[in-house]
Amino acid sequence: MGSLELPPRSTSFIIPLIALIAWKTSTYYAYQRKTRGCSLPPGPEGEPILGHLRIIPASNPEYYYQQLSKKLGSDILSFNVLGQPVIVLNSVEAAVDLLDKRGANYCDRPRFVLFEQMGWRGTLTFLRWGPRFRMHRKILQKSFQKSSIIQYRSLQERETGVLIKRILEAPTEWETIMRRFATAIVLGIGFGIHIENDQDAYIKMSVDASYALGHGGAPAGTLVDFFPFVARLPTWLVPDRSLKFARDWKWAIRQIHDVPFANVKVQVDQGCAEPSLINTLLVERRSKLEKGEPVEMSIEDIKGAAGAVYAAGQDTTWSTLVVFVLNMLLHPEVQKKAQKLIDEVIEPGRLPTFADRPKLQYIDYIVQETLRWCPVSPLGVPHRSIEDDFYKGYFIPKGSFVYANARAMTHDERIYSSPDEFNPDRYVSRSEGGLGEPLPKGHFGFGRRICVGQHLAEASVWIVVASLLSTTTLERWTDPKTGVQDVPIVEVTNGLTSHPKPFKCVFTPRVDKIPSP
């Protein structure tokens, strides 16, 4: 969102657009006459017809929503964007009350026209509420619930060993190596694919898809999302750069859906596929077809399930690991405390395993603080209200786009002292010298749309964090010419996912040889 720049040839587009905006705006204000004396949640003063289109920042709007929430003294805000009601929830309490406790009314999604243009289709994250969504969620929940992910521990531990070996061999390539780890986990689980090396073609696919996700803007937040007919127009006629970006990068999103799927399907047909989610779904589908039984999942549904595995695990895991590395450079005292504990628990000559996790609770606190300090999906994917609703005296219109602002929730000064500080001790109980603050909530979503891969993602980050701190010390890079240390600048990307922009890090070995798990 942001101010619009009309290209010279777009004048024929203006008149029907203004007419449609006027109609949607009149519909929006008609809701206010139905409020039975209740008003919409507070928000800033809007502009005629455009509403808040040019007021909401185009980049990182979660910060704006957080500050406005404080200014207006309300955890819930409302906006009108080209006649479309938008509700922003800035506290865990409001999100739980609406998205969890009244989940039946907020389980839908808007139509994500821009993301359709980018190549996302049939993916759980973006599916509208209905039988197809329930089918996809049932399948993925079965594979990724807390009890089910235990089966993936051997893969996670093996790939962590590869990550440590590669970082000790080529520390300057650490971001690529971490990308390889995250890709190996999701492709191993989803497709049974083994990543051979850091130059594997799947790594390049992941980098390209991550760029598209990280720079494609917020879902349901662009001109084409509010006016779907715009998607039928040529790019030069549309005053919205995001549509051009989506069309330019569609190949990257389709590639991560189509290429691994095609390779696995060939292996399944030949009877030599490795165990995986997609293998299971394809075999089940083929069996039903051979028996003449009805088939629930189409090929596109299976591709969509594969896309959901990627979207839920690859980029978020990699982004979280990058945030962790950044904070070890900024807070060496946290690193030293964690290493002292690890040295007491892990005997020399081996890497940490998940069996050590109960004795390494401080590592869990580091992971949780990493997720809190920089939620990788700060605004998440919006819900859509199915019916009119009333909350704390405010009216929420049917069809509202409802955002849960994870950034505001994880930096709520009423819950977290000095929320901008990275401090894992905030979760340590007061009796043990900590602050006794609650673990973060909101960064994996709410209600019937909560991320099905959250437990897998946390486990993947935990095993890497524990192993890195066990074998290396993360230090700031020093310019050999000037002797000046490089202090990383905390700056994040803007899109569906968010992560720090590139910075340098030195990994100093703490071991003489690479240990085994």
From TrEMBL:
<dbReference type="Pfam" id="PF00067">
    <property type="entry name" value="p450"/>
</dbReference>
<dbReference type="GO" id="GO:0005506">
    <property type="term" value="F:iron ion binding"/>
</dbReference>
<dbReference type="InterPro" id="IPR050364">
    <property type="entry name" value="Cytochrome_P450_fung"/>
</dbReference>
<dbReference type="GO" id="GO:0020037">
    <property type="term" value="F:heme binding"/>
</dbReference>
<dbReference type="GO" id="GO:0004497">
    <property type="term" value="F:monooxygenase activity"/>
</dbReference>
<keyword id="KW-0408">Iron</keyword>
<feature type="binding site" description="axial binding residue">
    <location>
        <position position="451"/>
    </location>
    <ligand>
        <name>heme</name>
    </ligand>
</feature>
<dbReference type="InterPro" id="IPR002401">
    <property type="entry name" value="Cyt_P450_E_grp-I"/>
</dbReference>
<dbReference type="InterPro" id="IPR001128">
    <property type="entry name" value="Cyt_P450"/>
</dbReference>
<dbReference type="InterPro" id="IPR036396">
    <property type="entry name" value="Cyt_P450_sf"/>
</dbReference>
<keyword id="KW-0349">Heme</keyword>
<dbReference type="GO" id="GO:0016705">
    <property type="term" value="F:oxidoreductase activity, acting on paired donors, with incorporation or reduction of molecular oxygen"/>
</dbReference>
<protein>
    <recommendedName>
        <fullName>Cytochrome P450</fullName>
    </recommendedName>
</protein>
<keyword id="KW-0560">Oxidoreductase</keyword>
<comment type="similarity">
    <text>Belongs to the cytochrome P450 family.</text>
</comment>
<dbReference type="InterPro" id="IPR017972">
    <property type="entry name" value="Cyt_P450_CS"/>
</dbReference>
<keyword id="KW-0503">Monooxygenase</keyword>
<keyword id="KW-0479">Metal-binding</keyword>
